[in-house]
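Sequence in, structure out.
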Amino acid sequence: MKSFFVIKWPFDTDQTYNYGSKIRFKDGYVEFSNPQMSPGGKIHTWKSKINYKDNFKALDLPLLKGGAEYQIQVDIKQKPINSIHLQFDFYDAEGQLIANPVFTEMTTNFVVPTGTDHYESSLVNLNNQQAVFNYMVIQPKSEQQAVTVFNGQDKIVLAWNKSATVIENLNVIIRNRVLDSGSYIAGKAHEMKVYVEINGQRILNDSQLEQKVSQIVSDIQQVFQNEQLTNSKSVDVSLIQSSDLTCKKLQQQLITALRDGEE
């Protein structure tokens, strides 16, 4: 089963360079600024292995297979451009460093060294003045999923095959929990998967639901327009947790709005 892993910047900033830094979380984005930070310093680090003291935390990164090739995509705005590099640190089971490749491109392929037990991924400062981070995606190179994430109080993750120009089925999945980072199942060759994650602590009234439906439809239309995709022929909208009343109402309204949009 094909899948991809979406990574966010966690609210816990233990792995963020905090000294003199201005860090702001807003609508799913993270704004980072520290003009005095020395070149070569790690702005933030994600880890695939957690300390035993932090066993209540979810993994930041997916588990990868040694010898396999993957692709990483980092959605980040940099000022100035190309002022941040991407670094991987691969370790064996004894914690010895195997390799630590550095990449200048924010979308690149990499090979996991044989013998890797765990690894880290870091944003490395070159001469950055300000950065606005949205998300990272890691997936096997062979899977070729295009991924877009829209943030806010809720989150929408859209994924489709990069080679597809016609989307025959729009598959929308609703859940009442927003994942900071996590794995998502990819769709079929001519299918777009749309994961709608609603903050389960919020109860939306009718007006807010209407606004949410309008925003979701607008986000989907924006991707179709930007990527020059042909409109879907069929729409499926399902729930991961069917007992949530807000999600049920959202499901019903989305079915109507998306199917009306086909006509």
